[in-house]
Amino acid sequence: MHIGFNYREGIVISDVHVHDQQQQRDRTLFNRISIVEMILPYGYPDPPHQRKHAFDVGEYGSGLMTNSLKLGCDCKGAIHYLDAVMTTSKGEPAMIKNAICIHEEDNGLLYKHTDFRDGSVISARDRKLIISQIITAANYEYAFYHTFTLDGTYKLEIKLTGMLSLYCMHPSESAAPYGTEVAPRLNAHNHQHIFSLRTPFGNGFYCKKTPLRTAQDGAAVYRHETSWAWDIINSTSINASTKKPVGYKIINPNCPPLLAQPGSMVYKRAAFAHKSLWVVPYKDYEVFPAGDYICQSTGEENHRHNQTIVDWVARNESIENTDVVCYIQFGLTHFPRTEDFPIMPAEPPMGPAVVGEHRPDVEKCFLCQQGRKKLCAAVKDGAVPLSGREIELMWLKWAWIG
């Protein structure tokens, strides 16, 4: 894999492969992974708060807000740091020391089975490779953790901490129903955090055995009542056992709808948050779903200088048997608590993840078999086994399928 960094997206992970021991070849998981947008709309209707919303990626830049990480608190263990070189407003170079942290952690039991006939045991421990970055966006801190584990899954976790955005109240005012009085006469407004993860895949796409053939078909909203999932498949590659196309499964149950009123400025500017999933044909110049130029954007559709994902989808191009890009929205609606004041505890991780047919954990692990440790296979040429697990607060799971 390649780990990159830029002023807008922060960490960009590209050219991600996993080695298939059975077929003795590398499988491509992702061409490029990054958080391309996030919207933070506040839910207080009175002026001037009704206009309060921030695009922390597009307006401010995750890279520009990145912290210099410290050993022992931000990161712990055997760590390799990467510095980030940025430019100042004068065009001069500026370095963010230790902008990216790379380390491994034990991830508990990977699998275990005891044969009741002869008592033989097979078990393995899991490990996860974590590539992380922490940003400070005004009062909020966001900690991004891209994790790869031995079962062949990728997971993005995001932890939220920092401080609430507070307002003083008059003794006659009440915080309810649009906020919480977290301390005497201090009002913390209700708000949302919605992120967009961009993942280009190099294969065709269909959902729940119902083919999604065009970009408009691929604009989908998650249905909790039926536990919707989406499959990204390669119809030209058939699994030898199942006789079905190989691919990945996207599971994203934690995708709250954008609560801004339709027609409002927030609703129009954050059109990417209208759907849980967008799928469009890959184009080099189409990266940011809210548009290239976020500052002072109006949300006008088909703006010739600032086209958004709504405009890309309106072309209704085919997404069959071609390189596609998925935009997966996930987030949470935050109703502040008194426990969040004066500083918020880091929330349980939220984010997306992926799973599938191939099981590199069976091939690349230490097996504890009948008390003997046996190295099953080495990681080829330093390649990192990919992985991902459940994301507790909000998660999206990619899996090998077929």
Give a quick set of tags describing it.
single chain, 402 residues, mainly beta, Beta-galactosidase, Chain A, domain 5, nine-stranded mixed sheet, seven-stranded antiparallel sheet, 4 helices, 23 strands, globular, disordered C terminus, quinone binding, metal-binding, TPQ, Cu_amine_oxidase_C_sf, primary methylamine oxidase activity
Describe the structure.
The chain is mostly beta strands and 402 residues long. The protein has one domain: Beta-galactosidase, Chain A, domain 5. The chain is 5% helix and 44% strand. The protein has 4 helices and 23 strands. Strands 5, 6, 7, 8, 9, 16, 17, 20 and 23 form a 9-stranded mixed sheet that branches. Strands 1, 2, 3, 4, 13, 18 and 19 form a 7-stranded antiparallel sheet that branches. It has a 3-stranded antiparallel sheet with strand order 10-12-11, with no helix packed on it. The longest helix is centred in the last third of the chain and has 6 residues. The two termini are 25 Å apart. InterPro entries: Cu_Am_ox_TPQ-bd, Cu_amine_oxidase, Cu_amine_oxidase_C, Cu_amine_oxidase_C_sf. Its cofactor is Cu cation. Its EC number is 1.4.3.-.
Silhouette: globular
Mean pLDDT: 81
Known CATH architecture: Distorted Sandwich
Count of domains: 1
For the biggest sheet, the summary is: 9 strands, mixed
- Class derived from helix and strand content: mainly beta
Q: Tell me the quaternary state.
A: single chain
| CATH class descriptor | Mainly Beta
Helix content: under 10%
Going by CATH, the homologous superfamily would be Copper amine oxidase, catalytic domain
The N- to C-terminal Cα distance equals: 25 Å
Q: How many helical elements? A: 4
Count the beta strands. 23
Which stretches of 5+ consecutive residues score pLDDT under 50? 203-208, 363-402
- Element-level helix/strand string: EEEEHEEEEEEEEEEEEEHEHEEHEEE
Please name the CATH topology: Beta-galactosidase, Chain A, domain 5
**Percent range for β-strand residues:** 35-45%
Radius of gyration: 22 Å
Subunit structure: Homodimer.
Protein name: Amine oxidase
Modified residues (2',4',5'-topaquinone): 140
Organism: Colletotrichum liriopes
